[in-house]
Amino acid sequence: MATVAGVSLYTPRLVAKASDSPKPQTIKSPRLNHPWKMSTRFGSGRMYVPPVAAAPEGLSNLVAESIKSAEEACSGDPASGECVAAWDEVEELSAAASHARDKKKDSDPLEEFCKDNMDNEECRTYED
Amino acid sequence: MAVCTVYTVQSLNSTCSISTPNKTHLGFQQKQVVFYTSSKRSSKRGGGGITCAAADSQTIVIGLAADSGCGKSTFMRRLTSVFGGAAEPPKGGNPDSNTLISDTTTVICLDDYHSLDRTGRKEKGVTALDPRANNFDLMYEQVKAIKDGIAVQKPIYNHVSGLLDPPELIKPPKILVIEGLHPMYDKRVRDLLDFSIYLDISNEVKFAWKIQRDMAERGHSLESIKASIEARKPDFDAYIDPQKQYADAVIEVLPTQLIPDDNEGKVLRVKLIMKEGVKFFNPVYLFDEGSTISWIPCGRKLTCSYPGIKFAYGPDAYFSNEVSVLEMDGQFDRLDELIYVESHLSNISTKFYGEVTQQMLKHADFPGSNNGTGLFQTIVGLKIRDLYEQLTASRAAGSLQATKA
Description:
Order of helices and strands of chain B: EHEEHHEEEHEHHEEEEEEHEHH
GO cellular component, one term (chain A): chloroplast
Structural class of chain B: alpha/beta
Mean pLDDT of chain B: 84
Largest sheet of chain B: 10 strands, mixed
Region (Disordered) (chain A): 17-36
Shape of chain B: globular
Domain CP12 (chain A): 59-128
Strand content of chain A: under 5%
Keywords (chain A): Disulfide bond
Oligomer: heterodimer
Largest sheet of chain A: none
Number of strands of chain B: 14
Radius of gyration of chain A: 20 Å
Protein name (chain A): CP12 domain-containing protein
Number of strands of chain A: 0
Low-confidence stretches of chain A: 1-53
Distance between the termini of chain B: 17 Å
Largest interface: A-B, 41 and 35 residues
Helix content of chain A: 55-70%
Strand order of the largest sheet of chain B: 2-3-6-1-7-8-9-13-12-11
CATH architecture of the largest domain in chain B: 3-Layer(aba) Sandwich
Number of helices of chain B: 9
Number of domains of chain A: 1
Low-confidence stretches of chain B: 1-56
Number of domains of chain B: 2
């Protein structure tokens, strides 16, 4: 029991904050800092950054950890409340990871970044 | 429409009370502070002087119930799209907020009313499906307040951390959707609903969908997916499934009957079960209202590819209710199939010819856009728009009458 509780003592909010922030992703793209090299950048069509398929790293870790601890919790009595609650946590985290993936698929990191930083050099659009 | 449209959001005029849980044996987090309004709104309807009552600003409340991972979010995206405008999380708020807001509609997730956080549930050995993990008193108070035009500070359940975050302000929208595991569980909450929907996913399909969703996730395997579904099943059967008897519309998703022994879960048979006698909700029908009909649209006029499309329609009984059931088995491969089917359905509450097809095409990338799940979700969205328009019209007429009197 003590070990199970120990396993669950992650610091998920920090992880989530770090991985949800759009900044690290936009910085990863070297092209971002050289907008003049992108011909497609002009006009209405902003630069296209391919969507990232995986769930944020932090959530993926949580899912994997939760499966491990569910398997442990169920090794004794598979009908116990402890076991059932552990598998419920797996479901909750898997759903959260799936939602995070969908969100990422929909969103363009540059668009996201520019929502909050309209004045940034990267976010300017030019006529002609 | 000279009726006053200013809605008085009597938000924080009440005392912010620290809810002292009376069910301490459940391990409710004592540290958690929940603010909510508990003021009574004085109704001035029909009296002399100000008649700017709740008449045309009153919020319509829709309930959507389904298990986790059964397409609630997709349905919500289709529904808000029917009303026009995209639904987005509250601007500048908690990035992990579960709320979606569009011009007309606010969607709140009932997980926000968890009384036990993830650690609490683990300690007590209860799942999120268990009513003991949810605060129905607060759910009722807040949904009622919003329905009465009062803004509330709703808690936020953070699905990443498993903790309850500081609350967010929810203002009364035109349409409030409460989606989650228990919108029809508590009678008080259920009685607040103007319309309710239950997504009923058969075990086979649920398994197939969760494999699709989770197999790529690290740590998951067929065994873990199966174990999770099986472990949650007793609570699901006890607390979630029985809610379907109260739903005005049930969308049932089953494996196809067109392919013998199919268990891939790719081709689906979907039933739309519509309760009869619900005010402002006229069930959709095929060809002749009230008759029993089996229809294969593929033939001389329309060519379909394997395994084809099959429709069925007819009256039936569901629990003790009289219902109409529309069923579609198979999937659309081409645009003309969809428009052909749409043109043969009646009472679908479209505003122009081809609106269902247009909505389905607009969101062709959503799951289910080529089968009965997408078709029936879109139709239910249109029926809700119709219900909303009829309800507001009747309320406006009612208040006009009251003003005259």
